[in-house]
Amino acid sequence: MSEEFPKCPQCEVNTHVILINTAQKVGTVAGGVTGAACGYVGAEAGTIAGAAIGSVVPVIGTGIGAMAGGLAGAVAGFFAGAATGNAVGKKVDVEVIGKYRCNRCGEEFEG
Question: Quick check: is 4 in a domain?
Answer without folding.
Answer: no
